[in-house]
Amino acid sequence: MKNAGLAAVISLFVPGGGQMYAGQLTRGFIILGSYIVGGIIFAVILGATAVSSNESLIRDAMAGRAVNPYAPTASISAVGVIGWIVLVGMWIWQVYDAYTIANKSSSQA
């Protein structure tokens, strides 16, 4: 018998961990892998965007135009906002999913 609350708490700290605790190992590893791959892609996109904005800052400075190196560019902001919305949405869903899976397994036992 699996505790649904414990499954949700585990998923709060380890994406997919609650699903693994509830006996859905494949599902848990898919969720964990998705977080890892998504995090790598997100970091690469942000890194590439930051490099391109640094290059434009350098070009502007070399051309004598005033630059503000602390001003976020639109592309970094858009990628960041979309990435965080997806990340938080997935995180909330997988906590709920772990809770419901554990609830179903305990009611069937």
Number of strands: 0
The level of helicity is: over 70%
| Cα Rg | 20 Å
Low-confidence stretches: none
Name the structural class.
mainly alpha
Amount of beta strand: under 5%
- Integer average pLDDT: 82
Shape: rod-shaped
Amino- and carboxy-terminal Cα gap? 6 Å
SSE string, helices as H and strands as E: HHHH
Provide a count of the helices.
4
Question: What can be said about the biggest beta sheet?
Answer: none
Descriptive notes:
81% of the residues lie in helices and 0% in strands. It contains 4 helices and no strands. Helix 1 runs antiparallel to helix 4 and helix 3 (25-62) runs antiparallel to helix 4. The N and C termini lie close together (6 Å). The mean pLDDT is 82.
Give keywords.
109 residues; rod-shaped; mainly alpha; 4 helices
The gist of it:
The protein is mainly α and 109 residues long. The chain has four helices and no strands.
SSE blueprint and pairings:
Blueprint: H1 4-13, H2 17-21, H3 25-62, H4 74-108
Helix pairs in contact: 1-4, 3-4
